[in-house]
Design goal:
The chain is mainly α. Helix content is 82%, strand content 0%. The longest helix has 30 residues, at 125-154.
Length: 190
């Protein structure tokens, strides 16, 4: 799903190389494991409340709007050329956690589809939940590793103009998702 995690993975892969995706997914996986434990401990009913859905949709919509607009504003200065003094201090594991939290789609997915998978996997005990989590996070890990590797290795084949178009495309998706989440919140209110 295009969103903040994918966008930052693409950006950081140009700066930090092919390990950006796996590091982002490590953070994402830590957060998802914590959420699964919380869901199994009783958090599930809270996620299905209208107030929670509306709050997540509005706050997430604002964050996605801010990220999309910021990316579009930076497009004229965006380049694949990375300076030696480029900032590499960002903790990508922590970024994976925080950006997953910032994406309202993530929580809504877990409150709906993810909960369905948890309900099915719990029927098979701890092994079922472990199998679901392992398969789910492995799919994320493989996909983001491929994206990260492709961007890191393929940047020599991209011009700055093509890279700007890719980032503009990602920013546009963030703006579309922002609108979708605002609409979802309004729709749930009515």
């Amino acid at each position: 799903m295009p969103g903040p995690v994918l966008t930052v993975t693409v950006t950081e892969s140009t700066r930090r190389g092919a390990f950006a995706g796996p590091l982002m997914m490590l953070g994402h996986g830590i957060l998802e494991l914590a959420l699964i434990v919380a869901l199994l401990a009783g958090l599930a009913p809270l996620l299905n409340q209208d107030k929670v859905f509306i709050t997540v949709s509005v706050v997430g919509g604002v964050i996605l709007l801010w990220m999309g607009v910021s990316m579009l504003r930076q497009l004229p200065d965006t380049s694949l050329t990375v300076e030696a003094s480029s900032d590499k201090s960002r903790n990508l594991v922590l970024a994976g956690i925080l950006l997953s939290l910032a994406n309202p789609y993530w929580l809504i997915w877990w409150a709906t589809i993810g909960m369905g998978y948890i309900v099915v996997s719990v029927k098979y005990g701890a092994a079922g939940v472990a199998a679901f989590f392992s398969g789910h996070i492995l799919a994320d890990f493989i996909w983001y590793s491929l994206v990260s590797f492709g961007v890191a290795r393929g940047k020599r084949f991209l011009s700055d103009g093509a890279y700007r178009k890719l980032i503009g495309f990602c920013a546009s998706f963030l703006l579309l998702f922002s609108c979708y989440f605002f609409y979802s919140a309004i729709d749930r209110l009515v």
